[in-house]
Specification:
The chain is α/β, with parallel strands linked by helices and about 325 residues long. It has nine helices and 13 strands. β12 and β13 form a beta hairpin. α2 runs parallel beside α3 and α6 packs antiparallel against α8. It is elongated and about 70 Å long. GO terms for molecular function: methionyl-tRNA formyltransferase activity. One of its GO terms (cellular component) is cytosol. Its EC number is 2.1.2.9.
Length: about 325
């Protein structure tokens, strides 16, 4: 028995529609803008884009919102994704795939489960080892030998769903937080491209369960409030300074810091661990300024020495050698 012409036309249109995935993008930061640019280049325009700051005076400064407006795409505040009603909207719109890129909003189960194919999150860290916020900074602070970026299926737990695609790479031990985050963003866009390639080719999308025994959910707060604890080895303190270094951008952790003898707080922006110089006191208490030059200050750290070069005091950026004096004891 043949179908009525109008019914056959509807089914044919639906099949053609399904050949092009119906996407929704939740995105922030430069990484989110790069993924949106990739989607537009592939002619996969999202049904809507959700991002923070929609409708706010600062919207024009947000890279995702600015790019979405440029392409005439509908925008929603990212907070909408946390509402149960958003799951109903996804179902009514017959959304196939939800992509979450660097958005910090935790989505309810009904939203994650609403898209036909599923929801995927781009995480700037290796899973299951570094789940949670600020994985690049934690990797630097923990002095890990390698890092990675992961595109994983979302479920009710944070960064716990099956892995779809990942890329891992060695660390040099000299990375700063912004530098590492930028590399994760670049590689993450590549993972999204692999996803789109598989969708276009009709290949099954990978799903590799995470090893829960190896899972580490990172604390939401930075280690020790980013205070430099001078009893720790100099290499650990250097790593903390680099983990807080987001270059020209605001750090989610703030700066590493210590206190001057008069109680004022001083932020440390650049530092490096050095071998204890010949002639330096061998029994100086941790935190003691051993020597200063025009630019740098050498501070006892554990059994080592941390060389401070750039600091911020009373809102001013200065060379450490101009702000500190030999014999000062920091952090008291």
């Amino acid at each position: 028995m043949s179908r009525p012409p109008e019914q056959a036309a509807v089914r044919a249109a639906d099949a053609a529609d399904r050949a092009t995935p119906r996407l929704v993008l939740i995105a922030e930061e430069a990484a989110g803008a790069r993924v949106l640019r990739l989607l537009t280049e592939r002619q996969l325009l999202p049904l809507t884009v959700l991002t923070d700051g929609v409708g706010a005076p600062s919207e024009g400064l947000a890279p995702v919102a600015r790019l979405a407006r440029l392409h005439g795409l509908p925008l929603m505040p990212a907070l909408r994704a946390r509402e149960g009603a958003f799951a109903e909207w996804l179902e009514r719109q017959r959304v196939d795939l939800l992509l979450n890129v660097h958005s910090l909003h935790v989505l309810p189960r009904e939203v994650v489960e609403a898209p036909r194919i599923g929801a995927l999150n781009l995480h700037p860290g290796p899973l299951p080892e570094l789940a949670g916020l600020n994985a690049p900074s934690w990797a630097i602070f923990m002095r890990r030998p390698e890092h990675g970026v992961t595109l994983h299926w979302m479920d009710a737990a944070i960064d716990a769903g099956p892995v779809a695609y990942e890329e891992r790479f060695a660390l040099t031990g000299q990375e700063r937080a912004f530098q590492l985050a930028a590399r994760c963003a670049e590689l993450g866009v590549g993972l999204i491209a692999r996803l789109l390639d598989d969708l276009e080719a009709g290949r099954p999308l990978p799903r590799h369960a995470q090893d829960r025994a190896r899972r580490r959910l990172l604390p939401p707060a930075p280690p020790e409030g980013t205070e430099l604890v001078w009893e720790r080895p100099a290499r650990d303190l250097e790593a903390l300074v680099r983990a807080c270094d987001w270059g020209p951008f605001a750090s989610p952790w703030g700066h590493a810091w210590t206190r001057l003898p008069d109680g004022r707080q001083i932020a440390v922006l650049r530092a490096r661990a050095v071998e204890k110089p010949i002639g330096a006191p061998t029994a100086a208490p941790p935190g003691t300024v051993l020597a200063v030059t025009d630019r740098c200050a050498l501070v006892a750290a554990g059994r080592d020495v941390l060389e401070l070069s750039r600091v911020q005091i009373d809102g001013r950026l200065v060379e450490a050698g101009q702000a500190l004096r030999a014999g000062d004891v920091l952090g008291v």
